[in-house]
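Can't paste images in this forum, so I'm doing it all in text. The chain is below; anyone willing to post the predicted structure tokens underneath?
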Amino acid sequence: MGAAERVKLLRQELKDRNCDGFIVPHADQHQTEYPAANAERLAWLTGFTGSAGNAVVLQDQAAIFVDGRYTSQAAQQVDQNLIAVKPSAEITPSQWLEQTVQPGQRIGFDPWLHTTDELENYTAACESNGAKLVACEPNPLDKVWQDQPAEPQGPIVPHDIKYAGKSLTEKIGEIATALEHKQIDAVILTALDSVAWLLNLRSSDVPHSPLALVFAVLNSDRTVILFASSAKVNDQLRHHFGPQVAIKPKTEFVNHLQGLANKKVQIDPSGTPAKVVQVGFRLAKELLNRQLLRKDTTPTIYDSTNDSTVICRCEKVTLKSLKAAVNMGITTEVSLKYQRVYRIEVNPRERCIDRCSQRGADTAKRPQEYSDFVISFSYFIII
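Text version of the structure:
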């Protein structure tokens, strides 16, 4: 099935739901840069495989918006007779909507895939022309994606303290103390790296990163609830968590949030899905963000910039990776991609992106067969 048929199916599904358009971001429920295969909706619909982008599909036209790293890639991968490629530096999706939508039209979005900050711009763009932004659940694209992969169910494994630097008990205690000081009842964690850092856990659900597709709620009483599929949990993990961390099915996450309706809750507005906020609990006046965390030294969002244990491990991995590439006689970018160069002793899942380029900005792109070239010492490499 080609892109034309896929767009046709989506448009029919939108019509059946009384929607005139739909926003398709490159995002999952956790705002991960490299989503799992089941969440690669933008790639499935348009053919574009870059790590950032947004598409808007209306009944009579469609456009995809990419930044300067991906303009040439999008032009090669997207059928421009079907979907126009727009540089986001020149026009954003919300600006395009403002210029395009008509009064009375209903533009759909999946509230799990957008943050509240994003939706403010989309809402303003639609309302300026008398249109309306409406939540669509379940995602209409999932309804027409007949061979959509299942969500990954990689086991969650403990991350040894000799690599983590601090125990989960220490980390939970530090953050709970900060919450108590601000009289906040709980903090909701949807970012996968935040949960991995807090609970010293690793998994294989996300490409290029050893992360698990989970949610967590940290309470001011020093307890944590982890929401994860039962297939990912075993006795080793339960022993690692001890009595401080309760494990509940991921399907119970929304119900638990509804139980926080009378609580004072902290979130990261730049990374938390709008669906979480729509549940209706009382938000803390000081929302969680990186600046606040640095000020309060409560690293709820994963940040290893001052962690000497993590820095040391990264330096060793970098040196071993580069040496391995030379010893294996790797000569082209794609061969670098397919060789198992990065054998990190911490965890074999922790394999980074392999990308070379004559220009630093191009290192953000994924290696492709059609753009393969011979590596030289004058090139940048990202690992």
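The chain has 15 helices and 16 strands. Confidence is low (pLDDT under 50) at residues 288-306, 337-364.
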